[in-house]
Structures are given as structure tokens and as C-alpha cells.
Amino acid sequence: MASEAIYPGSFDPPTNGHFSIINRGLRLFDRLTVAVANNPNKVALFSVQERKELIRGGLGKEPRVTIDSFDGLLTSYAREKGVHVILRGLRAVSDFDYEFQLANMNRKLLPDFESVFMMTGEDYFYISSRLVREVAEFGGDVAGLVPPNVLVALTRRFGGSPPARLSASAARAAKSAKSPRGRRGGR
To answer: Which residues in the chain are classed under CATH 3.40.50.620?
Structure first.
């Protein structure tokens, strides 16, 4: 029987830390569903569809990964998909406290639901989507924290110039695709 897990998250934007967990998760599971959460309580930088496309662009053609989205409870989504294991990345002790609560609530809602925790690699333990968004919004260089396609999307979204380390072709794409809206307002 093939093993399968769901890797849920906001992925707003997807970071190299997320991709590290996906690639390492494929060592443990035959198939992985990356499930983008549509959380109406959060103001997202990228739409659910954009986040799915950014993940696909960052992964390339990995046939063992399905990219999907869900609304509502993760346990309802998992039940619908017939998958009873989720994969979660942990960066710090504070992540564990939160994830421990979620894992226990999920098992209360779906008793045969299992959570597998994977420590984020040492190169990515300080990276969060929120931090990447803030740095990018204020013109900081997030190259190396996100894949090139995500870097281009962030550059477009915030109307900045592509970082010097960006490849020539990615820099041209970012420059030609700048959003006419410019920087996001409201802080």
C-alpha cells in the first residue's frame, strides 16, 4: 500500500523552507498533497490560485506531488481525500507548542488522524512567510529565501527592482511584469 500525506499551509508566499519540507517529505511518503489553506481570517498577499502556481513553479515536474487547496477544517479535507497523515514543519519550540495543540484537536475530530513533524533544515529555521513578505515589501533582498519564480512574483507585487543575484532571464521577467499597482498600502 502506497503511503500518502498532506502537507497543509498558507504558503503565502512559499519559501525555500516549505520546499525543503516537501522534498524531504518525499523521502518518507510515496505521494504528497500540498494543500493550500484558504483562510478567510487572514489577508493574503497572493490568491489561493497564485500560491498553487508558485508552488508548482518552484517544484517543477514532480509527479508524486499534487497541489490542491481547501476551505474549512483540515480533518474534513483529509477525510474527503482518504488521507490520514499530515506532514508539518517545525522551526522552533514555539512552533511545537502550536502544532501540538493542533495535532491533538485534529485527533479529537478524526481519531485515526496522525501528524508527522519534521524539523526544518538549519538553513531555513529562521524563515517564515510573514517575515519574507515584510522584508520584500520594504525592498529587502529575499533571494535565497524563496525560489526564483517566487522572487519574481514578490518583485512584481511590490513594484521593486529585481535583486542583483537574480538570473538575467528572471530579472527580465520581473522587470517586464511589474504590477501597475506598485507597493501595497496600509501599515
So the answer is: 4-119
We find that the CATH architecture of domain 4-119 is 3-Layer(aba) Sandwich (3.40)
**Opening angle at CA 151, ends 149 and 156, nearest 5:** 95
Residues 72-102: pLDDT tens digits? 999 999 999 999 999 999 987 778 888 999 9
Answer yes or no: are the C-beta atoms of 146 and 13 closer than 8 Å.
yes
Q: Active-site residue numbers?
A: 18, 42, 91, 129
For the chain, give the longest Cα–Cα distance: 51
Quote the CA–CA distance of 14 and 146 in Å, as a whole number.
Answer: 7
Distance CA 71, CA 116 (A): 22
In tens, the pLDDT along 117-154 reads 999 888 888 889 999 999 999 989 999 999 999 999 99
Span 167-185, pLDDT tens digits:
444 444 444 433 333 333 3
